[in-house]
Amino acid sequence: YEGRLVATSNANNPFSMNQGRTLLERTLQVTDTAITADGAIEWSDAKLTSEDFTLTDKDIMASSGNLEVKSGGDQVTFSVNDVSMEVDMDENYGTFISNSEDNFIDLAYNAYRVNIREFQWDIDARRLFFRVPDGQDDMTFYATNPSQGDLVFNSGSADYDMSTSSLEVREIPFIDIADSRLFPNGDTLYVKQNGVLTRLDGCSLSSPTSETKHHFDDVSMTIKGRNEGSGKGDFIYVGKGLDSQFIAMDKIYTRQTTEKKESDRTYYFRGNGELQMSDSLKFMPAIQGIGDVAI
Fold it and tell me: Alpha-carbon distance 63 to 42, whole Å?
């Protein structure tokens, strides 16, 4: 073929691709060297937009474009701009790389943002995979729900389930809550609608972060914000001349200090438990404790 063929379409009459699974709106241009497009390429739950699509018999490519993921109709739950993209239509798998170091993915449904540079899309599995690429230490998730304050945490990997709009965050080194630091110890954190976070189990808690005096182990914690969390766990007590002992804390929760000026108030963790005779906890070799305990 010599010359150029230009065809246009619209939302009412789009071009059909990939055996009808994918639709192209706007302009398609065919030359003797390439097939290019300008507009939107849509799946049932996702849309790519770009001014410089290149199409082959199996690939969709663009040097810069945007991706939107939808759920529940037209509600956009996930969006990112200015990424290079390559979608293999035979494998139904896409790779996206940010064109800017300070580019963010917006997870509107989950009320979080993340600064990952590269991610993959398994179209059939309806999952997005965030993996830290070479040259980047980790990715950072930022809460955007005002009720969570400036809650932020790093991660080594995460998945986004397009079927449920759930964000699954793994390899979190720690999360700072109030004056303390929670270590998830490998547990997965699920981020639901509006930033609701599932409970983390098997954690460690050190308090305060500035000069750690208290350690808790086997902690189950539900995080509600930068200064709010509640759960339970074991306080590690080390008495003089004694091995480490554990005090079960039925309640571990955040509280605010009571300074008159609100700007002077801070948040801290408090733990409450009860010692029974059967606990056999000793404060000193010859002194055993019993009764309510507050840390």
Answer: 18
CA 226 → CA 15, 69, 117, 129, 183, distances in Å?
48, 28, 25, 26, 15
Query: Strands, E, within 148-227: which ranges?
Result: 152-155, 157-161, 166-170, 175-177, 180-183, 189-191, 200-207, 214-225
Q: Which residues pair with 106 in a beta bridge?
A: 79, 113
- Whole-model pTM over 0.70: yes
The two three-digit tokens of residue 131, written as one number? 């993996």
Asked, as a colleague might, if the bond just before 184 is cis with ω within 30 of 0, I would say: no
pLDDT digit string, tens, across residues 36-67: 888 888 888 899 999 999 988 889 999 999 99
Distance CA 86, CA 94 (A): 6
Tokens in use for 76? Answer: 């956009």
Supply 55's token pair.
Answer: 């199409």
Q: What is the CA radius of gyration of the chain?
A: 26
